[in-house]
Design a protein that fits this description.
The complex is a heterodimer of chains A (765) and B (179).
Chain A lengths: L29 H6 L14 E7 L5 E7 L1 H4 L4 E6 L8 E2 L6 E2 L5 E2 L5 E7 L2 H10 L1 E6 L6 H6 L11 E9 L8 E9 L11 E6 L6 E5 L4 H12 L6 E5 L15 H11 L3 E4 L2 H7 L6 E9 L5 E11 L7 H10 L9 E9 L14 H19 L3 H8 L19 H10 L31 E13 L8 E9 L2 E6 L8 H13 L3 E4 L17 H28 L6 E4 L2 E4 L5 E3 H4 L5 E8 L17 E14 L4 E12 L6 H20 L5 E2 L2 E2 L17 E7 L21 H13 L5 E2 L3 H5 L1
Parallel strand pairs in A: 1-14, 10-31, 12-13, 16-17, 20-21, 27-30
Antiparallel strand pairs in A: 1-7, 2-6, 2-8, 3-7, 4-5, 9-17, 10-15, 11-12, 11-14, 15-16, 18-26, 19-20, 19-25, 22-23, 23-24, 26-27, 28-29
Helix pairs in contact in A: 5-6, 8-9, 9-10, 9-16, 12-13, 15-16
Chain B lengths: L13 E8 L2 E9 L4 H8 L18 E4 L2 E4 L12 E3 L12 H9 L8 H14 L5 H7 L11 H25 L1
Parallel strand pairs in B: 1-5
Antiparallel strand pairs in B: 1-2, 3-4, 3-5
Helix pairs in contact in B: 2-5
Classes of the chains: A alpha+beta (765), B alpha+beta (179).
Bound molecules: FE2/S2 (inorganic) cluster (2 copies).
Chain lengths: 765, 179
């Protein structure tokens, strides 16, 4: 290629280059995934491996009197059996406070708590060995009502007590009252992340037990490593993690599940060990979305302007802490929703019970708050004689407004635009009950279901604010390395790709910054610094910022190199298409040529701006950034059978900038599916601490037939605070879609539904 | 009983039997007879493309074809499939040369984590073979046995429709050439 072709000033980027920011290139792992050759963590194997399996508590609360392993040891093929006595390091783990035992020692505190683990030659040998372990329990009365944890009427079920955290927020004039007052009690059921790729891991011990290598599907490799190493009694460096292919996460892979057990069995046997959970075990083995009871009272002027909000939150964290305290803070600090409010009194508790442990799930506390504040907005609209859109527009938050924590919203805040653009999307043209003759569109589908003439249609609204990234003073960062050589960029990061598509975005960033076509992604593992967690809608911002930073540093090196070769000030150089050009002269050198035989390498850590703790009145700049979204739902309801068909969801979402429009659409549609699920079908049912539906026959997930048409409007106002102008897009879609659907059902049948998911009995009776 | 049961090993024994998978005879040795087809495909024959997300027939991740019929590999005893033609995701197209359905899933953004994808590819091939121009409702009905937790299905429906359209225009131009 020629290096001296003259360039016309202002020449445009070569349109044949695809895969840059703003394009929607194919996923780099796409072909492997459609062909079945992509290796998920459960697909990994090693010579001479053993299967591992976990014995779990059948009781919500019991004292472990004795464990007899003798019969299990007699089974042919059993190679190891381990219990709490075999944990060489820290006996407990946890993301925020380490209160959860690797194996129960004295007490079991939820149904499904690990008590022992075995390694054997076949999954069925494992099953028989688990059956042969005899655990004698002294069964205790379980604590299952979270209110008893709040009021202190139940003796502590854990040395750390029954309250994970209490937070109060007091702002403004708490004595003021409104001319209009509405209040309600709301309840949110326990939702499961229900990723399809079950928990699975492969651990390979180092010779002599000097360390261990773990391949695992997780959201945060470095945090896992730190917790695992502590429990194994090893240094962090002795534990190496590589990301096994991840079949979805949605928060359920933020905590430790099988990691420590797999490593312990591998170190004990000196052989590779695989553990793969069943679906039932998965329901028991990871944390869920907190069930919550929320009371809210809104005071407003007669024309519907919010004057004050009072609220009380009780979130059931289950047996162990996980991220309960952070989920609580997210919930209470989002009490007002995306609306202006100067005065507030809020009390929130996250408490311990003998129910399933709860922690992170997409939306992280804000889902619960939003269900309540949106119910309140509809009540307020009714009390003021306004329609649901008008009440929300009158109160819509703008940049410069304050949260009830006193924090100023500095981000782009197009709340009114989200509402208006959603309202502008067309309503479905299909008649109530679906087009004639198509029974599939009836609530309940074909068969002896709804009588078309009795079906009622409703429309409902939900609008949300969601914080992005981590909060409360956590120094959050992500690390990336870029190497440029011979026109090929190699990127290295520990960012968990869980399906969201960061691997696609990373390549787009490198192509845009460096003018290359070929981007190689190095394995995702712990041989580089942490990328933080794939959660809190943070990776495009954080790891995107890190990749962008590393690529820009490499570009500076490249310009310095080209500049010195040609005697040109590097500041005059720029990337144009695939070339380095002199913006004040006619030099044009292809990047491939400029980097031929030379290696440019840089590592960059992206930190977001610091945040603060809340004070005892819940005041402080605790969050990093915010995004906004509106949803409008249309439903058909059969009031006789209590069946709901969600017909359409329209949404306008504040995304900053669409770095990959197709990925954004996928996040929005996928998030809405989970929001619809929480509205009408998804709930883990527990009675007396026992799970009744830990399988996909009884825990219902939206199928293609349950999913409505989705209309999407992307609001692109690049955020100056975001490294690439792009806000996280993963969580907002599943936050206000749920209240929108429930509001639509209320609208259809005229009932005061205050609980989600809405059950047929809530509609009929 | 069909002759398919002729080679089925007796319950409780570990025997050698032969499965016909993706056009090849594959011996399964020293297997416990209680193993599902999904387990045998993955763990004994190394065909990891079929996935298991529920092992009770609810999610479709394990979809394979047995004598051209779409079934859940998790619900079929491997030993009962002796003598039948089994096609898995690995048998749909050669590595690196995706089928039209596979390519459409990639292009349309129908793949996120990809765990549901092999099963959906199998189900989509079966659907389009049976019904080349399905309506949207028909797609929803026919693929409703395949759960996807990531995508919300919109891009999957788009991928199926893209294949239907491109096959029709391919067929139309082929018949134009012929006439
Ligand atoms: S694994 Fe077979 S249907 Fe779910
Ligand atoms: S892409 Fe993840 S389950 Fe479908």
């Amino acid at each position: 290629m020629s290096t001296t072709a003259p360039v016309a000033a202002g020449s445009v980027v070569d349109p044949t280059i695809t895969g840059r920011l703003g394009d929607s290139p194919a996923r780099p792992d796409g072909v492997a995934k459609v062909q079945g050759s992509f290796a998920f963590s459960g697909d990994l194997s090693a010579d001479g491996f053993l299967w591992g399996a976990t014995l779990r508590s059948p009781h919500p609360y019991a004292r472990v009197v004795s464990i007899d392993l003798s019969a299990a040891w007699k089974i042919n093929g059993v190679e190891a059996i381990i219990t709490a006595a075999d944990v060489p390091g820290k006996p407990t783990y946890g993301l925020i406070s380490q209160d959860q035992p690797v194996f129960a020692a004295e007490y079991v505190r939820f149904v499904g708590e690990p008590v022992a683990a075995v390694a054997a030659n076949h999954p069925d040998t494992c099953r028989r060995a688990l059956e042969a372990i005899v655990v004698t329990y002294e069964v205790l009365e379980p604590l299952t009502d979270p209110e008893r944890s709040v009021d202190g009427s139940f003796p502590p079920i854990h040395p750390d007590g029954n309250v994970f955290r209490h937070q109060r927020i007091v702002r403004g004039d708490t004595s003021v009252t409104g001319e209009v007052v509405v209040e309600g009690d709301y309840e949110i059921g326990m939702q499961d992340q229900a990723f399809l790729g079950l928990e699975a891991a492969l651990a390979i011990p180092d010779p002599g037990g000097a360390g261990v290598e773990l391949y695992v599907a997780t959201q945060w490799l470095h945090e896992d490593r730190h917790q695992i190493a502590a429990c194994l009694g090893l240094e962090d460096e002795q534990v190496r993690l590589t990301l096994g292919g991840v079949g979805g996460a949605f928060g359920a892979r933020e905590d430790i599940s099988l990691q420590v057990h797999t490593c312990l069995l591998a170190l004990r046997t000196g052989r590779p060990v695989r553990i793969a959970y069943s679906r039932e075990e998965s329901f028991l083995g990871h944390v869920h979305r907190h069930p919550a009871r929320i009371w809210m009272r809104h005071h407003a002027t007669v024309d519907g302007k919010i004057v004050k909000i009072e609220a009380r939150f009780v979130m059931d964290g289950g047996a162990y802490a996980s991220t309960s305290s952070a989920v609580l803070i997210n919930a209470v600090t989002h009490t007002q929703g995306p609306y202006k409010c100067d005065n507030a009194v809020v009390d929130g508790w996250a408490v311990r019970t003998n129910n399933l442990p709860c922690g992170a799930m997409r939306g992280f506390g804000v889902v619960q708050a939003c269900f309540a504040h949106e119910g309140q907005m509809d009540r307020l609209a009714a009390a003021c004689g306004l329609d649901p859109v008008e009440i929300r527009l009158r109160n819509a938050m703008e940049t410069g407004d304050r949260l009830i924590t006193g924090q100023v919203i500095e981000n782009v805040a197009p709340v009114a635009r989200c509402i208006l653009e959603t309202a502008a999307l067309p309503l479905p043209d299909e008649p109530v009950g679906g087009h004639d003759g198509d029974p599939m569109r009836l609530p309940g589908g074909a068969g002896l279901t709804a009588d078309r003439s009795h079906i009622r249609r409703g429309i409902g609204w939900g609008v949300a604010i969601k914080n992005l990234m981590y909060s409360e003073g956590f120094d959050d960062y992500s690390t990336a390395r870029c190497v440029l050589r011979d026109g090929v960029a190699s990127l290295k990061f520990a960012t968990s790709e869980v399906g969201q598509g960061f691997v696609t975005i990373a390549g787009q960033i490198a192509r845009s910054v460096l003018g290359v076509d070929d981007v190689v992604l190095e394995p995702i593992d712990t041989t580089i610094g942490s990328a933080g967690s794939t959660s809190a809608s943070r990776q495009t911002w954080m790891s995107g910022g890190a990749v962008d930073g590393a690529c820009r540093l490499v570009r500076e090196q490249l310009f310095a190199h080209v500049g010195s070769q040609h005697g040109i000030d590097p500041l005059r150089l720029a990337i144009d298409g695939r070339d380095v050009i002199d913006t004040m002269g006619d030099l044009r050198v292809p990047v491939a040529e400029a980097s031929a035989g030379v290696t440019f390498e840089e590592t960059f850590e992206h930190h977001h701006r610091p945040t603060e703790d809340l004070d005892e009145d819940g005041q402080g700049n605790c969050h990093t950034a915010f995004a906004f979204v509106a949803h409008r739902a249309v439903v058909d309801v059969d009031p006789e059978l209590g069946l709901v068909k969600v017909i359409q969801i329209a949404t306008a979402q504040d995304i900053g900038r669409a770095l990959n429009p197709l990925s954004v659409l996928g996040q929005i549609e996928g998030g809405i599916a989970q929001g619809v699920g929480l509205a009408v079908m998804e709930e883990i049912i527990q009675t007396d601490g026992r799970v009744r539906n830990a399988n996909f026959t009884d825990y219902l997930l939206p199928t293609m037939l349950d999913m409505p048409d989705v209309l999407v409007s992307l609001i692109e106002e690049p955020d100056p605070m975001a490294p690439l102008g792009a806000k996280g897009v993963g969580e907002p879609p599943c936050i206000s879609s749920t209240p929108a659907v429930v509001a639509a059902i209320r609208d259809a049948i005229g009932k005061d539904l205050t609980r989600t998911p809405v059950r047929p009995s809530d509609i009929v009776f | 009983m069909s002759d398919a049961t002729a080679g089925v090993p007796a319950v409780g024994t570990n025997q050698i039997y032969t499965l016909h998978v993706n056009g090849e005879d594959r011996d399964v040795s020293d297997a416990w007879v209680g193993e599902s087809l999904l387990y045998v495909l993955r763990e004994r024959l190394g065909l990891m493309g079929s996935k298991g997300a529920c092992e009770q027939g609810e999610c479709g991740s394990c979809s394979v074809l047995i004598d051209d019929e779409l079934v859940c590999g998790c619900l079929v005893l491997a030993a009962s499939a002796v003598g039948q033609q089994i096609v898995t995701i690995e048998g749909i197209a050669p590595v690196g040369a995706p089928s039209d359905v596979q390519q459409a899933f990639v292009d349309a953004g129908a793949v996120q984590c990809g765990f549901c994808t092999p099963g959906l590819i199998m189900a989509t091939h079966a659907l389009l073979d049976r019904s080349p121009e399905p309506s949207e409702y028909e797609i929803r009905e026919e693929l409703s046995g395949n759960v996807c937790r990531c995508t919300g299905y919109g891009r999957i429906i788009d991928a199926v429709q893209r294949v239907s359209v491109s096959r029709r225009s391919d067929a139309a131009s082929a018949s134009e050439v012929a006439s």
